[in-house]
Design a protein that fits this description.
The chain is α+β, with helices and mostly antiparallel strands and 72 residues long. It contains four helices and two strands. Strands 1-2 form a two-stranded antiparallel sheet. It is elongated. The N and C termini lie far apart (28 Å). The model has no long low-confidence stretch (mean pLDDT 80).
Length: 72
């Protein structure tokens, strides 16, 4: 797992932080034509629909845990 993510565009740092901090900037990443990791996309969809238990789902294991809790 990564502790830090740095996003660069044209040789300049655009954003820098923990995966949770960086991937929460979905509009910025989309504007750079970057795609969010699939677990983050699913988590965002769950959050938007009021179904997620946390807003920092960044990996498959965490996503499965939260999905199981929601589906019980």
């Amino acid at each position: 797992d990564a502790d830090r993510v740095v996003v660069m565009n044209k040789g300049k740092i655009v954003t820098d932080g923990t995966p949770s901090e960086v991937f929460s900037k979905s509009e910025l990443l989309k504007s750079l034509n970057l795609t969010l990791p699939l677990p983050t996309q699913i988590a965002n969809s769950l959050i938007e629909n009021g179904m997620a238990l946390s807003n920092d789902i960044l990996d498959e294991d965490r996503l499965v845990e939260d999905l199981c809790k929601v589906l019980k």
